[in-house]
Here is the input.
Amino acid sequence: MVIHVAPGDLTQLTVDAIVNPTNSLGLMVAGVSSAIREAGGQVIEDEAKASAPIAVGAAVVTTAGELFTKSVIHVPTMEEPGMKIGVENVRRATRAALLAAARNNLQEIAFPAIGTGIGGVPFDEAARAMVDELRAHRQPEPAKVWLIAAKPEMIPHFEEALRLASLP
Here is the structure.
């Protein structure tokens, strides 16, 4: 798996799927979820809600509405909107997204910084948890992963986590 770090807007990417950290109800009311719904349309939230409740540690793949990407991988990090979470939920969501990508033969996916907004997980802890799960994933898909930082201050945390993961 090739991993890239870049600043940017998840909703503008042309990858096979983007990852939406959400809640178990599939409500896309704040943060990354809200941005995805606003850019891609209500159909994305409607499809996610149709699969609710979605357990933390599970994933649902929907169409992407008007987005440039083909699919959205919804991974709950919390049961209800607005909850604070621990870093273990970041791990579980990352793992669920990777398994969903493998099941659906998605070659290239993009993650935001999971749990760092409403969830309240510190940037460095979230980055380490996400990179640990990426490195532990042993399936051929996805072949390429983008770690997209909406906030520029997240980039050094992703880069440091990748550097530390590559040490012997």
